[in-house]
Design a protein that fits this description.
By secondary structure, the chain is α/β, with parallel strands linked by helices. Helix content is about 40%, strand content about 15%. The chain folds into two domains: about 1-40 and about 175-250, Alpha-Beta Barrel (TIM Barrel), CATH 3.20.20.140; about 60-155, Metal-dependent hydrolases (TIM Barrel), CATH 3.20.20.140. It is globular, with a radius of gyration of 17 Å.
């Protein structure tokens, strides 16, 4: 059995006190069956740093993109996105999307960057990784207008309702659940999860953020993915080994392995 962390920020983990080094983090992950990783870039400079840190590990894959909260500062670097995304280890564009919770005042440039990510993803035949917060209506509107079904993608750390989930499924998108699904107050989210077909699911840690129960309040890490997987297995009434196999196949299908 092995698990794949479909969304993590490996460069942002604490290698001073929580982990001795990258190898130590990978050893802990491997012990909990987490053996492949998609580490997400949030800016062009962040992508360079990720590549420098992890190029020697062929089981760590990259995305290349500009997070909506970094759009303003990345205006001068954005023209590099397409050329960098041609790298063979880059299996997705993003994370991209819209965040009106933290930065409503930059919504126009966020929307422009989001559209450009989708256009490049279609051109390169690579999926997109979508971040959406307090912006789901505009997110779906832009996905439809830009024909994002041509590249496909995933809405990461999903927290929306069932109606939204099925609008995304209609576009051929996958839905990824993070440690939020284990939180006590995530009752509606768990009910939504029950309705989503297994063939459309992925799981993630979003490390170092969103640690699942029982680690909430502590820094997250890929090794905790198994806790998310086990929790979802209880909700979906499925054995862990079978669930891991389905998730692996979903990951391979979405990211063109």
């Amino acid at each position: 059995m092995f698990l794949i962390d479909s969304h993590c920020h490996l460069d942002q983990l604490n290698y001073h006190s929580l982990h001795k080094n990258i190898e130590d983090m990978l050893k802990k992950s491997n012990k909990n069956y987490v053996k492949k990783f998609l580490t997400i870039s949030t800016s062009i400079n962040n992508f360079y740093n990720i590549k420098k840190l992890f190029d020697e590990y062929n089981f760590i894959f990259y995305s290349c993109g500009v997070h909506p909260l970094h759009c303003q500062e990345e205006i001068n670097n954005f023209n590099k996105l397409e050329s960098l995304s041609k790298n063979n280890r880059v299996i997705a564009l993003g994370e991209t999307g819209l965040d009106y919770y933290y930065s409503y005042e930059t919504k126009k440039i966020q929307q422009y960057f989001f559209r450009k990510h989708i256009q490049i993803a279609i051109k390169l035949n690579k999926p997109i990784i979508v971040h959406t917060r307090n912006a789901i209506n505009d997110t779906i509107k832009i996905l439809k207008e830009e024909h994002a079904e041509k590249c496909g993608g995933i809405v990461h750390s999903f927290t929306e309702n069932q109606e939204t989930a099925f609008k995304l499924l209609d576009l051929g998108f996958y839905i990824s659940f993070s440690g939020i699904i284990t939180f006590k107050n995530s009752i509606e989210l768990r009910n939504t999860l029950k309705q989503i077909p297994l063939k459309n699911l992925l799981i993630e840690t979003d490390s170092p953020y969103l640690s699942p129960i029982p680690y909430r309040g502590k820094e997250n890490q890929p090794a905790y993915l198994i806790d998310i997987a086990k929790y979802i297995c209880l909700i979906k009434a499925i054995h862990l080994e079978k669930f891991a196999e389905i998730i692996k196949n979903n990951f391979y299908t979405l990211f063109r392995f």
